[in-house]
Amino acid sequence: MRNSIIFLCCFFLAGCSGEKTDKALLELDKQRLDENINYDKIVFYKFAKIAVRSAAIQDTTLPEYQKFAKQSRSIVSTMNKIDTNSKESISVMEALRLYKEYRSVKSFVKMTDEDILPLLVDGFTTIFSGQKNNKSVKSKKEKIYFQNIEHAVLSMAVLTTRDLGQPFALYECSKTQPELLDDSEIKTLLEFVRGFLFFGNNLFYLSEDGLSRNIKWLDKNEAIPLPYTKAFFDWRNLSDEQTHTAFHGMNYLFRGLDRMRMERKVDEERSLEDFDSFVKDMNKLGLQSELVWIIDAYLNLKRENPEKAIPALEKLKASPLFSNSEREAIQKTIDYVKDREPDAALKNVYDKAFIAKLASKYMISVLAKIDWEKVMQEHNVPHTKEIFNGINKFKALSNSVSQYTQAPTIDNGKKEITKKGSELLDQAKSLW
Questions:
Q1: Which of 9, 22, 251, 384 has its CA 20 to 30 A from that of 270?
Q2: What is the domain partition of the chain in residue ranges?
Q3: pLDDT in the model for residue 216
């Protein structure tokens, strides 16, 4: 209700003032974010996480625990049975039982903030060791820091997986609160991750907001080492100073992409300035990539220097990153440029959506190469093994249960049980 009121107020205020303000558009994005993560598969994911985190609660008389105790024990018991090294899933009966229990507490799950519970690693430690221990943090400030790290790590770990992917990454991203962290490299990297995910979900004003904070921080802290950033982008051959320049450029790039996709004329003008800064930083380092070629060509086309765009477009066409249809689109752009039709190249082929798609594809390819478990172990992140074991168990659990969320597949489940005999069918009747 509160979010709806904010949304309506911003909408009417923006309408009355003519052009929408940055603040009003940011509030609209916050409303859209809530809508984007409020559907069944995400709520079930949250259901599983609350169950794991509540396993570490020591005072089992708490109302929050009592409301969820039965379902929590059930899902934890099922997760314990999952062997991530086996291709076998949980049984039909177990999947249906879990789905029934999920439905019984779905409203409670939607209203509950999972971050009121112990850390996820404490829940996994309790599950795998059988001993309750939620003393891994000693203060509220420490808990905020570590659960921000958990959400950020999970957003990256699930982003490139086939089974979970961007919707689940967006949920984890939405739970991060970098504004509550002290200024640091971790906070800045977290803001970048959020910015990329928000951009990928068309939440351009939320993305721009965090990336702008990053740029200001980087401008003020040019001498700070960035070891996590270096590992994140696999910039192991760059010095600390070069890493700072490269990361500075990446923040300008995605802020420029945000502004390029916005509707106002002023945003388009700002995007070109950001792209200039990105290309300047990359050229300073001598770094060449698909991102540099995309933006270099776009800037030259926008500024009516089409002949200067052709070398970058030729490099793009030869990149193994793109599909045959994307290469064909790039070739059409080259043809338009050679025929002295830069406007057609921009409007019909090399448009804003196309650039955004190529940039996102490049970034996903970078993230997919990162062995997140190895990176976390190298930087001594506690309970890394438990976190990734839990992710793999949840993927298996989600795949087994999600097929029963639609009526046609529930009917198929009935047929499958019927084939296995009347005894199983009798057991299942109460679940439908």
A1: 9
A2: 36-197+373-431
A3: 95
